[in-house]
Protein 1
Amino acid sequence: MPRDNKSALIQKIAKQAFITFKDCRSASSVDGNVLTDKLNELISLVTSVRAKDLKMMAPKNRPSSGAAEPQSPPVSYMHICETEVFSMGVFLLKTGTSIPLHDHPGMNGMIKVLYGKISVRCFDKLENSLTVPPDFDPQLAPLQTAGVWRSVLRSVAEYSENSGPCLLTPVRDNLHQIDAVDGPAAFLDILAPPYNPDDGRDCHYYKVLHSVTEPGTGAKVDQEQLGEKENEGWLLEIPQPEDFWG
C-alpha cells in the first residue's frame, strides 16, 4: 500500500482498489459481477484525484538555452504501490510523446489524468477467422504473419484532469495507445492484476497495418481507415519500439 507520505485520498483509492479487484483475479472482468457498488466507489474516488493529491505540478515550459541537453526518457513512471491484486503509479509524458499501442492480458485498468491532456485510442483483438490475410503496404516478411491479428478500433477520446477515468477490461478496450496532447501530461494508472510474465501477463506492443486489398478479392481499400466494417483492421505484434524507453 502507499507510504504514509501519500495523501489520504491516494490511501483510500489504494484500499478501494484492493477491495474491488481482490475477487476477480481469474476470468472475471469489470464488465460482469465486479461492476457493482465496489467499482462505482472506486471510480468516484479516482475521478476526484488531482495532481496536488500526489504533490505534483505541471511542468512549466522553459525556453531552450540552445545548448545540447542530456537525453532523458520521453515517458517516465512514478511507482506508488503494488500488491498481487493491483498496481498503482503515475506516468509522466513529455510534450509530443506517446505510450505505444500495447495490451493488458487478462487485466482491468483505470487511467485518470492529473494534468495536461491525453488522447487514448482503444482496440480489441478479434478472432482470426480469415485463413488468408490481406496484402499490406509495406509487405510483411513470412515470419511476421504469425504475429498478425484482426482487430477493431473501439474508441478515440481525449481526457483532461476534469474528465472521469478511462477504463479497460480483459475483454473491452484492452489495447490502447496514449498520446500527450498540446503539452506534457501525467496520469494515474491502476492495473488489476499487475503485469506478471510468469502468470501470462506480459506486455506486448503492436502497430496498425494498412491493407492494400481485401483478402481473396484484389479489391482496393482505403489505406487511411482501419476498415469499412465497424472499424475492423489488422495489428502486427512488434518488439518494444526503440524510441519508447524509460
Protein 2
Amino acid sequence: MHFPRIAACAPDDVDLNTCVGVVTSLREEFASRFTGVRPLAPGFKLFTSPFDFPVDEAPAPLQMELVELQRNDELKAKYRTASPLSFFCDLVLPSNKFSNYIEHVKRIVAMFGSTYCCEQLFKKMKYTKSRIRSQLSDRHLNDILLLSTSSIDPDIESLFHGKHHQPSH
C-alpha cells in the first residue's frame, strides 16, 4: 500500500483499485488535453517576464527588441509597478518601438480573449438548451446563439409598424 493514511481513512466498502483507476484516468486525460500548452510555455514566459527572459531563448525576430527592452531601466521600473497588460497597453504600444514584441504580446493576449468568448458562448448554449428547451433543433439553437451574442439591438418599433396586419374573416 503506497498510501497508508488512505487505507486508514477509507471505509471497507471502497475499492482502492477503482480509486487508483480513476486517478490514473485523470492523469492521462490531463496529459492528453494539455499537450498543446507545454510548447507555448516559453511564449507565456516571454509575455509575463520580458525583463528576465533569456535573450538567446527568444525567437530570432524578437532578440534585438528584447535586448533593447531589457536595457531600458525606465520601462523596467514601470513594469515592476504595473500589471503586464497595462504595461503593454500604456507604455509599449504607444512607443511603436518594439513591433515584433508587440505582435507576440497580441497573439498571447488574443488566446485568452478568444477562450473567454468561447466559454461565454458555451455557457449561453448550455442555458438555452436546458432540459426545458431540449426540443430545439440545431438550426434554432444556432439562430438563438447568434441573437444572444450579437451586439445589434433590433428596432422593434419600426419592425412592428412595417407589418401589414390582415384582419380575420
Protein 3
Amino acid sequence: MNLSFFDQFMSPSLLGIPLILISLLFPTLLFPSPNTRWITNRISTLQLWFFHLITKQLMTPLNKKGHKWALILLSLMILLLTINLLGLLPYTFTPTTQLSMNLALAFPLWFATLFTGLRNQPSIALGHLLPEGTPTPLIPALILIETTSLLIRPLALGVRLTANLTAGHLLIQLISTATITLLPTMPTVSLLTTIILLLLTILEVAVAMIQAYVFVLLLSLYLQENI
C-alpha cells in the first residue's frame, strides 16, 4: 500500500520508451498560436493579458539589461504553470515532481545569472560574498558561509518545487483513498472527507500556480543581484 502511493511519481513509459518528453511538450500545444490580426478571440486576448501581467511583474525590478531575460523567464513560467496544473488532473503525470528535472531547470539558469554577474561586474559579484564592515577574524568564516549559501540556491529551487508538489499529490491521494474506504461503513465521515478533499484540491491549484511563480521570481531576483 505504501509503495502504491508513490507509483504516481514514476516516470511513465510505453514499451520501454520514456514518455516524459511528451509530458513536457504537450502543455505547449494547449496555447493558441499567435497571429497578426488586430482582433482575436477571447482566449488569445486573455492569454496576451496574462503574459503582459507576468512580464510586468517580473521585469519591473530589473534594469534594461535584465529585460533580455523576459522571454526565457516568461516561457519558463508558462511551462511550469501549465505542467503543475495539468498534473492535478486524474491519471496524469507531473514532471515537476521529479527532483532531477527541477534541478535541470534550476541549475543552468542560476549559473547563467551568476556568470552574467561575474562577466559584467566581477568586483560587485564577488563583493556579495563578504558583507561590508566585517571584522577581520570573521572574514574566512563569512566567505565560506556566503559561498555555501550561494551554491545551495539551485538546490533550494529544485527541492522547494518538488517537495510542495509531491506533498500536495500525496495528501490528495491519501484523502481520496480514505473517502472511498469509509463510504460503505461511515458515509457521514466520508462526506466530510469529500468536502476536505475539494478544499484541498482548490488549495493545490493555488499552490501549483504560486510555486511556478516563486520559482521564476527567485531566478529574477538572482538576476537582479548580478546586473
Protein 4
Amino acid sequence: MDLKYPARKLSRSVLTMGNVGLQLLWYFLHILLSIWHSILAIRCFIESCFITCGVLEKYKSLNIAKLRYLAIVIESEDAHQTSKVVKLLQWLDSIGVKNVCLYDMNGVLKKSKEAIFGKLKNAKPIEEVNEAVTLHVPEHMTLEFVSYADGKEAMVKAANFIFVENLKRQNFGGEIDGQVISEPLLNEALKVVGCKGPEPDLLLVYGPVRSHLGFPAWRIRYTEIVHMGSLNFLRYGSLIKAIYNFTKVHQNYGT
C-alpha cells in the first residue's frame, strides 16, 4: 500500500484547517477592533455633547491667546461643503481664534473664497493685513487660503532663487555652492520669495486619514497636529476639546 497519498491528503487537510483558523482569528480580531472603535466614538460623542452644553467646567476657560495662528486641513471632497466650513469658522470666531489658514489639496476652498467671505462679514483675507498676523489681535478674522499647488510653486521659486544667487556668486569670481540645501538656507529663500507664511501653532485635520494632506511641511515644524475625523461629523465640543488640549501642552523648541 502506498502511504504517500494518505500523508499528502492529511497534510492538505491540516493546511486547510490552519487557513480557516487564521481567517476566523482575523475576523474575530476585526470585530473586537470595530467594537472598540465604536465605544470610543460613542464616548467622544457624549463628551462632545457635555462640552457643548457646558457641563464640563474645565473646558469653559480657554487660554486662547496661546493659539496665535490656526491651520485647518480639509479633505477636498469635504471642502465642497461650504456651509459646514462657514459654521466652523463662525465657531472659531466666537471662541476668539482670529488668524486661520484654510487648506485643501485641490484648491476647492480657494474657489469658494468669495462665498465664504460673503457669509463672514467680520473676515478679511491675509493679503489685506499689514502687520504680522501672529503678533496682533485684530478686531476681524484673518483668513489665508492655501492649496497643494501653492506648496509646489513655493518650492520652485525658492530653488530658482538659490540657483540664481549661486550663479551671481560665480559671475563675481566666487564658487558655486554645491552643498546640500540646508533648512536655514531654504527658509531664507522661501522668506525672500514671499512664500514662507506664518507657522501655525495648531493644525486640525478634517478628513478620513491621519495626514496633513500635503500642507507645506516647512510651515509645520513645531505645529501640534490633531485629527478631527470627517467634516461630516463636525462637532463644537470636539473643537473646544482640541483647542483646550493644545493650550495645556508645554512645547520644547530646543536650542
